[in-house]
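Intended use. Records such as the FAD-binding oxidoreductase entry shown here are meant for training and evaluating sequence-to-structure methods. They are not intended to support clinical decisions.
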Amino acid sequence: MNQNPRHVAVIGGGAIGVSTAVHLLRSGADVTLVTEGELASGASGRSLSWLNSAGSRSREYHALRMAGIDRYRSLFAQDPSREWLQFGGGVYWDNDAASAVARHEYEVSHAYDSHLVGPESIASFTPGLNAAALAETSVFNPGEGWVSLPHLIEHLIVEFTQRGGTLKTNAGAARVEVDDDGRAAAVVTPAFGAIAVDAVVVACGPHTPDVVAPLGVHIGNASPVSMLVVTEPLDHDVRAVLNTPRAAVRPNPGQTIAIDHDWYEEHIVRDASGQYSIPEPVVEELLGEASRLLKGTPRLKANSWKIGLKPIPGDGEPVFGELEKVPGCYVAFTHSGATLALIAGELISYEVSRGERHPMLETFRPERFEG
């Protein structure tokens, strides 16, 4: 445990922010968690949250994602009955069978558990799917899973409270203030004014680059607008996460289904106040695409849909670590926020509490966007 606890503010009430706050408390720091709105009101509240390291990516990114899955495995082992964290595998295909085969061969080459399956064999791997709608060649990854991030945040915030963390919700947009030496010294919000700190972690999803930009730090931001639809409850046996050409689908607590994709993005409209909307027929079309993937093609009804920015750094790789220009200010910004939430919180806390750089974050430093 850190023998000299510091006061650290974490900006962001999503999965990475809350995870970081809890890990910092475990290290002995005094922690204030500041969020613009309510907990999970941003990207974590509308994430497909597929736990995986499928497909092609850098070795360092793959290693980090596998460590992230490992932490979820540990959490799952504590209580496998949690309906908000499950490991039922993943099914992937696109419109080109050759690309599925290439993906499988690449995964096998680095020992990622991967199987080629077809409509006639899929039922022996995972239940609840409509064989008639499946591709002739798909990839099944049995080690993958999913998490409901709002439920994860609810779980973590219990420990946060028990360990004496201070939670400030509905704070409004936060900014980082520096002292005369250029070191992070305070977090300033409309609702709470200036909160003096020894260090700050900026983990507010797609808005992270905007928070650090006034500090003279540029972080590339490629965050698109996306949507997550959650259905009304229905009887289904789906266990796997499905990633297909027209719908991405996963089970969700309460016998509901969560649905995502990107083909509908051109239909999303932003009004003058910054609010997003989408025509209801487009939502119905997405529900139809998801329905045909499920056994019995049940009629799916939307209970809700949420629209907002999906965090993606400019080069697609995670952005983690202390800003060289602003000592004491750390950032956590990544597309894979669900898979990395637990490990990112752990490693950022390591760096803050020890004042040391963790080797697994070395290739993900924010300075790579400078110049």
